[in-house]
């Protein structure tokens, strides 16, 4: 096993400890807590009245647009990191490459802005 | 190496099982979740191949962004709790055939390319800087093309979402 | 780029012991800090609002969190009848585990000296190691990866509850989280640019040369401000706590959760506050950097580190006491129209300055091109803004017109109906009169 895998092994142990703790808390609570369910208690909360209609509501399309925008900028961020680590080596040309990349994506943002999809109304 | 093999087997079986459940489950959000499990498992396998930047990209872009987009899309259309009976399309035998053929071809290609090649016991570690070096020199044109592709995707989404 | 010296020459049982100790210590520290934060928030905000706050359990009520925690164990755990049983149980785990994970990359101590190759190490059981759970080379990206997984905890909790308020709350919450995650990532890039590394240990080591080298100053204050705002939004802390705006959404995504499952969400929320503060100290405020006053050299850095974290915790509470909640449209505007363009623009400016410093670009050319580019960007975005506004106003006007026309039509139809009826009545009356 290389150095690298060992540091991930530590992270795995850490998350294992976290899972164990959460599981333990739930386990202890299961033993201690009372359990008297009845029909009224198990109705979904809707400000004290009986739920109206189904339990699922359709969400709006604007959330979807923001998710698309996020994909765009997430991919951009992923490219930014290796660039930032090595900019010293790439010099001025590397800077220009990134300016072009960001410029094209900024056009996308400007377009979305222009079309008013960034407006939450 | 033994420990690595065991971990690989464990992760790979999780990935295979989740992939199977993705297509067989009768709840669409569950299917998305199984797909997340598949992607996360692949990310873990990338870490084991010491390609950690690729693994992080897998988590950041695929799980963090693309699957969230999927989930938003599902919430936008139809995501009831419980089972749906009309999720299985009529063409499923055809899809199964295509998938099996594709899988067979891929397996054949991989086996043919690598034969009995073994992973090096102390592999070269591809760090973020190495990825950067290839992206910003050898693959510069594809890199800039990616931005245009992303732009096109965004414009498409905006046009779809707006009526005018 | 060396990595933790602990793993350098093979690994034996001693190394595993060190690993175990580090995991346990970090775990306990994080839990204690979280419980402290819950108490501290209540006490501090009580002071700010001229109240007393918790004062019964223990001295100054410091055991209040513990008492509340114990109480959770004795509460009935309810799951709505139409909830999704599996996902409902899974969601709190995702939230809790991701909250823990991000802390593993934070260096919580060690004396960092400027220019040394292997700085910031401590000796545990005769083993030299870093005082952080793990130092993967991708370091800070782990934070971003973990926070993108944390979105699932919220989203699934809301969906699986089988109830409307949690579903609305969770969609809102995840949209907010992803909106600010982009800005968060881009503000980190400025730090990575200066450190030349993603590893949190290297980032800390890069700030060892005194306050002037802390990235809050040397990266320009902008990335820190963006990070602070984006982090506050990621944490759903006031003034960005729309997710659990109780006036409109009850409890948000965890409305249907009770007992210890709710406690896990609650714990994760406060744990994230502590972790985010620690990350901010690491990225921008030199981590454990500070003067060694007397005696034990390994002791002081940890003290400085936690002192700085405490300042940030107090700041988050201060935000809550001072600032009113944003509206959702303001939130989205701030994220997409201010923070992201600003982060990208500043990144390019900072990168250019860096290049000029290194002499790869002529400063005069850089300034001229920079001014031109900034002007072009300004014009572009102003044009986009005004055009967008105009299109919006036109839409509104059209809609209003359509509504008015509809109203007119409806009234015309009504009038016609009334007239017809009047005519009919008249006809009836005339017929009766003639009879």
Name its key features.
heterotrimer, A: 121 residues, mainly alpha, Methane Monooxygenase Hydroxylase, Chain G, domain 1, 2 helices, 69% helix, C: 435 residues, 2 domains, two-stranded antiparallel ribbon, 13 helices, 2 strands, 68% helix, globular
Largest beta-sheet characterization of chain A: none
Question: How does the helix and strand content of chain B classify structurally?
Answer: mainly alpha
Figure out the total of helices of chain A. 2
State the helicity of chain A in percent bands. Answer: 55-70%
Characterize this entry briefly:
The complex is a heterotrimer of chains A (121), B (164) and C (435). Chain A is mainly alpha-helical. Chain A has 2 helices and no strands.
Write the topology of this structure.
The complex is a heterotrimer of chains A (121), B (164) and C (435).
Chain A (H helix, E strand, L loop, with lengths): L2 H30 L28 H54 L7
Chain B lengths: L1 H23 L3 H21 L3 H26 L14 H23 L13 H8 L4 H22 L3
Helix pairs in contact in B: 1-2, 2-3
Chain C lengths: L12 H36 L15 H10 L11 H17 L19 E4 L2 E4 L9 H21 L3 H32 L4 H6 L9 H4 L2 H14 L11 H4 L9 H26 L14 H24 L5 H31 L4 H72 L1
Antiparallel strand pairs in C: 1-2
Helix pairs in contact in C: 1-10, 1-11, 3-4, 3-10, 4-5, 5-8, 5-12, 8-10, 8-12, 10-11, 12-13
